[in-house]
Structure formats: structure tokens, C-alpha cells
TrEMBL record:
One of its GO terms (molecular function) is hexosyltransferase activity. This is Glycosyltransferase involved in cell wall bisynthesis. InterPro entries: Glyco_trans_2-like, Nucleotide-diphossugar_trans. It comes from the Bacteria. Residues 11-140 form the Glycosyltransferase 2-like domain. Keywords: Transferase.
Amino acid sequence: METVKNMSLLTIISINYNSKNGLQKTIESVIKQSWKDFEYIVIDGGSTDGSLEVVKNYQDYINYDISEPDNGVFNAMNKGAKAANGDYLLFLNSGDILHNDESLSKLVAQMMQKSDSDIYYTNLLLADLENDTERIHQCPNHLTLTYFTGSFIGHPASLIKRTVFNTMGGYSEDYHIISDWLFFVKAFLAGYTFQYIDMILSTFFLDGVSSNGNAQHAEEVKRVYQNELSFIASDMKSLRKVNTRPYRFMEKLLSKIRTH
């Protein structure tokens, strides 16, 4: 079993636009980590709310930053990936935080014990500040296509091999909310390797675009199945109706998809 031998080249990318307090919270969670062998990139979309002063205050901890207008969240995330040098990418956007000061240390320790994979994913803590509640988004140990039709892997709770991210062309900039979900679906269908690590890596706060744009989310999902994934839409409908021997059906479907 080939294992991850060197995680000194991890890139953490935070994007921000007019979220001064969220950005500070994110940066502080990063620089407090006990494991520090990473580079840190901040991509700002031309903020005018004092965010740039926050970046300046933490300049000693940031390897690269830029502030300029962008074409949306995923355009900014792709900018960060292009500036990255790390073997793996972790997208921790403004407002999101690493779960505790030992999160990276624990993650890397577990990665060292596992086989080398293209994508590592963990559980994600979802926090609703408005209702003062939180819940754990528990991911499965083994992924299936049916999982992706009704759930997701959180980008703040996953590490993507940079070469894989670049080979796949990064995040689609045709969507405003679901491009991270679409990326993982396509990576799964393409046969890239995923490995689960049973821990909470990050906390995602349910007050952003992706958590509040339900109507837009539904519209984008519809467009994805009409365009990006049109060739499997009918199979997915059939898959939802399968109640017996689902894994045999899944293998048949994946075999068909990967030779498409």
C-alpha cells in the first residue's frame, strides 16, 4: 500500500468579498493550527469593508494574496488554485473555520496511515447561527452515485490533489452554487480515488450564498442534469427506484458511464 509520505506541501485557500469579520475568523483558525507545514493563500474580490486591513494585519502568515474584482465564488477559488504550490488543496472560504487547533495535525496523521488517494474527505460541522443549532454532516465510508444524487462532500472538509483539480479544469464557473458538488460528481465518475477520514475537519456556517439560495440551487441542479450530466439522467431516475441489489446495479451503471 503506497501511503502519503509528505504533507508539507498543503495549500489552504480562502476567498473573501466584503466579509471582514468572517475573514478574520477564518485566518485565525488557520494560523492557530499546531501543524503548520502549509502555504496559505487569500483571494479577495475587491472588498471595500475593511477586509484588506485584516489581510494586512496577518500578512506574516499569508504566502500569497490578491484583491481584485472576480466573476464569482468559483472564479475566485480557481484563482487560488492557480497560485497554489501544494500537492493538495483545501478550500476554506471566508467565515468557515477549522474545527479546532489540532484539526490539521489529526488529519495528516490519519492520512499517513492510509493509501495515497486523489481526494480525502471528512465529516463537516454545519452551524446555524440564526437558530443557534449545529449538526454533523456525516459522510459515508464508501461513496456511491446514489449518495451524490441526494447529498454532498463539503469543500471545507476535503483535500483535493492539485494535479487532479487542474486536470479536471477546476471548478465550473457556469454555476454560482453547486460547482463544488459537480466537481466531486465528475471526479467520482471519472474514477479518481476517494478516501474517507472519520473526523470533523471544519465548521461551515449556514449563512452564505450556497445555504440560502434554495431556488437558485434547484435551478442549477436542473441545468446540470440537462447539460453536464444529461447522458446519465435517465439512469439516475432508474437508480432511485432500485430497492434490491443496488450495488450490482451501480457497478453496471458505472461501467457504462466510464466508457461513455
